[in-house]
Amino acid sequence: MTLDRPPHVTAPPIVGLMGTGDAERWDRFVQACPDATFFHRAGWKNVIEQAFGHPVWFLYAESDGVLRGILPLAQIRSPLFGNSLVSLPFCVYGGVAALDAEAAAALDAAAQALAARLGVDHLEYRNLAPRHADWPRSDMYHTFRKPLSPEPDTNLLAIPRKQRAMVRKGAAAGLLSRFDDDTERFYALYAASVHRLGTPVFSRRYFRLLQQEFGADCEVLCIEHGAQAVSGVLSFRFRDEILPYYGGGGQAARALAANDYMYWEVMRHACQRGSRVFDFGRSKAGTGSYDFKKNWGFTPQPLHYEYQLHRARQVPANHPLNPRYRLLIRAWQRLPLRLANALGPHIVRQLG
């Protein structure tokens, strides 16, 4: 919730564009601003530019040399899925992060003007909290966030009984967790998983860029059964939060309860390091991942994805639940994995 203008600031906000020398100042603001998330960090500018080639506008509002708000934006121009300006594509959260209402309004106005100038179909904010009650919105997505206890055993006992049994099944199977220095083992597991779901895969380069930009705040945990990695997850660390973001398992994962054990290990390691919030990320209502997270004892919280329509007449529906894509999903599942991995990055970059 943004407040009135801070008492030490006298000048109205001026909106500028983040330059190469602004990243450190930008990230200091992100760490301190209650509205900001991991997906507001400056590193996303390089990731989106280099991994996907999309133009970006990372806007800030400042007065008297002091940052008062930020708004990261990227444009996706796709012959398949339209032309959009989004805060922020490939991220579950976004929108304006500001210390006061005046700065927030200045950034919002600048984004709307940019969207009009670019001639996009729509401007999209991926908000944790509502901002524009009069804009169309999507009610499909929910996030799952829960406080962590400092004690691992307390967190384990907080997991509902049936789900806790799956964690213990994985432990009884002799599964072990190991942090990896690179994304290679994780990528093979992740790519196989999304192929089974019938969705296109991100490129290897994308995950390498995430590690390059965010360093220790982007970590990979793999679950091993003997000498074989059977599941893996890439997580983000932000303030006192842990966010397992991309995950997947091989063919043996289900029988070993490896994915269940994997998320428990993320939770256990995180609470031992001092993390106090577990962010299970977004899921679409009515999907298996939505039910899986509820089974862990997480309460779904609606995300407020808001759209200002410009050339578009309705909110976009570029997601696997759209009946239009049912046949395409089935066809994608039948592609050889190597071919799907080669084609996938060219398609997923257009989705956001």
Automatic annotation (TrEMBL):
BioF2-like acetyltransferase domain segment(s): 164-294
Record-linked InterPro entries: Acyl_CoA_acyltransferase, BioF2-like_GNAT_dom, PEP-CTERM_FemAB-rel, PG_Glycine_Bridge_Synth
Cited Pfam families: Acetyltransf_6 (PF13480)
PANTHER family referenced in this protein's UniProt entry, alphabetically: LIPID II:GLYCINE GLYCYLTRANSFERASE
Record's protein name: FemAB family PEP-CTERM system-associated protein
Organism: Rugamonas apoptosis
